[in-house]
Specification:
Elements (H helix, E strand, L loop, with lengths): L13 H7 L2 H4 L3 H17 L5 H20 L11 H13 L12 H37 L4 E6 L2 E7 H26 L1 E2 L15 H7 L4 E2 L3 H6 L2 H27 L7 E2 L18 H24 L13 H24 L2 E2 L1 H9 L5 H10 L4 H18 L8 H7 L6 H5 L2 H6 L9 H27 L3
Parallel strand pairs: 3-4
Antiparallel strand pairs: 1-2, 5-6
This protein binds arginine.
């Protein structure tokens, strides 16, 4: 059954029909669509816009359709134009004439806007709980590795020593922002569009406030034209996911590097690595590489959405049907990546000795040597120059700064005394960085406490939301 046959005398070309049909991909909105239609029918009955008897029949029919789709009895296939017409047609087949009253005061334009908003809100909730699980894994590792010394890098060159906990906490900060971004996006998605009709509202006395509460939205949309034209929430959603993927991708890149023979910092567990068909010795970090690769795919969805929307005149245009695959694919991809990344990370073996040995090499304590000279009264620029000479001398001798003798040191600068050696020991370099946000024991403990409080707060909020039946 077509929803718009009256004005037409000719048939749609078969290839044109196949081309514009969205059922193959929007079928996954069936629950959202039925939820929206049930609330709409309920409201129409209460407002006396359709008879109570019809409303009841419609709601019962829709709930049976939902059950049959869920159980697999009613396959989501056939020649319907989209999920909305599929369900309306099925309803007519089951309850007859009453079904023809469901679409009163509604258009597929506000209907699909509603479905997508319900979908995105739910997807945000699901993805947020996966991010939370990853945050907990990170925090467990952080606690375990408060004292694991590693070299910190800039330009991928060894820079200053730090601890693995500090490095992991950097990702805690990123994931926390990802959660916040998704939360912000959810707040703007939480706007109920029904009542906007095709574009200019409806002449029926529909109760938007009732629909808002029934469908668990925090506000109703303010402008009917905007409500059917707006896909900002899809763009924001996929944009937040793109940033999240960028974070996972950077982490994956580090894990790939760290797992090489040259670094030797980690070993990815057999469960999350693969072999080579030709080279028997190989253990490849495929999962990390795939997550890094899939980042491009999520960015692609974001670019697709932005480009899709950029030249559209108000209000609804069929171009907007193209929003779905981008949003669904981004959500599915990120969900999978979070799961795999969490499994991979929690089963990694950290070679703490290799990390420590690596941090000892490469003059990672040179800044501390310069700082020591500053504390002896030298201006920083001069201290920098002296330490640079020291490093150059050390390279020539094949010695680390702490391996130079006091005479060698004094030959470069008379200010040196034996107190220097303690100040540039790797442990001291880390402990001296006690600024909040730094790697000293105290700073790390404080950061862990902060992260734990944040996670507990989020867990508590979602528990309360569940109890309130959200
Ligand atoms: N399948 C359409 C979409 O996803 C539903 C809305 C159709 N509206 C219309 N005026 N043709 O965008």
């Amino acid at each position: 059954m077509k929803l718009w046959g009256g004005r037409f005398t000719g048939q749609t070309d078969a290839s044109a029909h196949a081309f514009h049909s969205s059922l193959p991909f929007d079928k996954r909105l069936f629950k959202e669509d039925i939820t929206g239609s049930m609330a709409h029918a309920n409201m129409l009955g209460r407002q006396g816009i359709i008879s109570e008897a019809h409303a009841e029949l419609i709601i019962k029919g829709l709930s049976e359709i939902a059950n049959d789709i869920d159980s697999g009895q009613l396959p989501l296939e056939g020649d319907a134009e989209d999920i909305h017409s599929f369900i309306e047609t099925e309803l007519f087949a089951r309850i007859g004439e009453a079904a023809k009253h469901l679409h009163t005061g509604r258009s597929r334009n506000d209907q699909v806007a509603l479905d997508m908003r319900i979908y995105v809100k739910r997807a945000i909730d699901d993805l947020s709980s996966r991010i939370l699980v990853l945050l907990e894994t990170l925090l467990d590792l952080t606690k375990e590795h408060r004292g694991t010394i590693i070299p910190g890098f800039t330009h991928l060159q060894k820079a200053q020593p730090t601890v693995l906990a500090h490095h992991l906490l950097a990702y805690v900060s990123m994931l926390k922002r990802d959660l916040q971004r998704l939360g912000d996006c959810r707040a703007r998605t939480d706007s109920m569009p029904l009542g906007s009709g095709a574009l200019a509202g409806t002449t029926f006395p529909i109760d938007r406030e009732f629909l808002r509460t029934e469908l668990d939205f925090s506000e109703i949309s303010a402008n009917s034209l905007d409500a059917v034209s707006d896909r900002d929430f899809c763009i924001e959603f996929v944009s937040s996911l793109s940033i999240l993927m960028m974070h996972l991708s950077r982490f994956c890149e580090e894990l790939i590097l760290w797992s090489t023979d040259s670094f030797g910092f980690i070993e990815i567990s057999d469960a999350f690595a693969t072999g080579s068909s030709m080279m028997p010795q190989k253990k490849n970090p495929d999962m990390a590489e795939l997550i890094r690769g899939k980042t491009g795919r999520v960015y692609g969805s974001l670019m697709g959405l932005l480009t899709l929307m950029k030249g559209l005149p108000l209000s609804y245009n069929k171009d907007m049907q193209e929003d779905k695959e981008a949003v669904f694919d981004a959500a599915d991809t990120v969900s999978q990546c979070l799961l795999i990344f969490n499994g991979m990370l929690s089963s990694i073996h950290f070679n703490t000795q290799a990390m420590y040995q690596s941090a000892l090499k490469g003059y990672t304590n040179a800044t501390d040597a310069a700082d020591w000279l500053v504390k002896k009264g030298l201006p920083f620029r001069e201290a920098h120059e002296v330490t640079g000479k020291l490093v150059q001398y050390g390279i020539g001798q094949g010695k680390a700064l702490e391996e130079l003798s006091i005479d060698e040191l004094k030959s470069i600068c008379p200010l040196f005394d034996p107190g220097f050696f303690k100040a540039i020991s790797i442990e001291q370099c880390i402990e001296a960085r006690s600024v909040p946000g730094g790697p000293s024991k105290e700073a790390i403990n404080q950061a862990i406490e902060g992260a734990e409080a944040y996670i507990a707060h989020i867990r508590n909020n979602s528990k309360n939301a569940e109890e309130e039946g959200c």
